[in-house]
Amino acid sequence: MTLVCTGYEPFGDHDTNPSGSVAEALDGRRVAGHEVVGRTLPVAFDAAGPAMADLIGAHDPAAVVATGLAAGRSAVCVERVAVNVADTVGTPDNAGNDPVDEALDSDGPDARLATLPVRAVAEACLDEGIPARVSNSAGTHLCNALLYRTLATLDGSDTPAGFLHLPSTPAQAAAVAREDGAARGASVRASLPLDLDERAVELAFETALASTDG
Ligand code: PCA
Q1: Rounded mean pLDDT, 146-166
Q2: Stretch 40-61: mean pLDDT, rounded?
């Protein structure tokens, strides 16, 4: 079987997106006996959910881990919940959509819980020295929407699925710090290198499959 990992293209003020880099790096890699299908999704509310549904339909994965950038967060965030709300909070998607306080699905539940074993994934990361935590809010931008729609697509199946928010890379943090005047004493946002992001995704798959195996 396969494992589906997605990341995103750059969006907003970000020239790069570590999540897309992680998905591309993992594409074709064997993790826990399965081959990873890693894809970069568009940052577009109308397109990301259907793209994920197509990936799941085409590859019938044993587990799904979607990832996205959460600039400023200090650790890998294993998201517990997706809420039925779309609000870009002023950063339109790459198609120009800028929802304010909208429902993702007017007939859907208020929230959907990730089916990854979120606490075990965070613990596995921490055990390997990767800064990580469970997060109880994926925000209301596209990452929340993708988790909501992925869980809807998999509703009724036993395929575990979840979402990891990734911090900025060191290069992103340095670029912003340069602009912000860090060389004159301004603060620098937290960051994490891509190899630790990649390992966190591997651990999410390994942990999910270990708990599925019983
Ligand atoms: N992060 C955004 C959307 C795309 C991305 O990488 C989010 O956190 O919703």
Answers
A1: 98
A2: 98
Contact in structure between 147 and 105 (CB atoms under 8 Å): no
User: Within 6 Å (CB) of ligand 1, which residues are found?
Assistant: 8, 11, 17, 19, 43, 68-70, 139, 141-143
The three-point CA angle 80-97-25 to 5° equals: 55
Asked whether the beta carbons of 38 and 26 are under 8 A apart, the reply is yes
Q: What are the tens digits of pLDDT across the range 93-148?
A: 999 999 999 999 999 999 999 999 999 999 999 999 999 999 999 999 999 999 99
Q: Confidence class of residue 214 from pLDDT cuts 50, 70 and 90? A: very low
What pTM was computed for the model? 0.97
pLDDT score, position 211: 83
pLDDT of residue 74: 98
Atom 4 of ligand 1: nearest residue by CA position: 68
Distance from the CA of 183 to the center of ligand 1, in angstroms?
28
Q: What's the gap in Å between 184 CA and the centre of ligand 1?
A: 30
Distance from first CA to last CA of the chain, Å, rounded? 18
Query: Which one-letter amino acid corresponds to residue 20?
Result: G
Angle CA 9–61–88, to nearest 5: 35
CATH class of 2-212: alpha beta
Listed by start position, the domains of the chain span 2-212
Answer positive or negative: Cα dihedral of 98, 14, 136, 125. positive
Q: Which atom of ligand 1 is nearest to the CA of 67?
A: 6
Alpha carbon of residue 29 to chain centroid:
18
Kind and range of the H or E run holding 173: helix 170-180
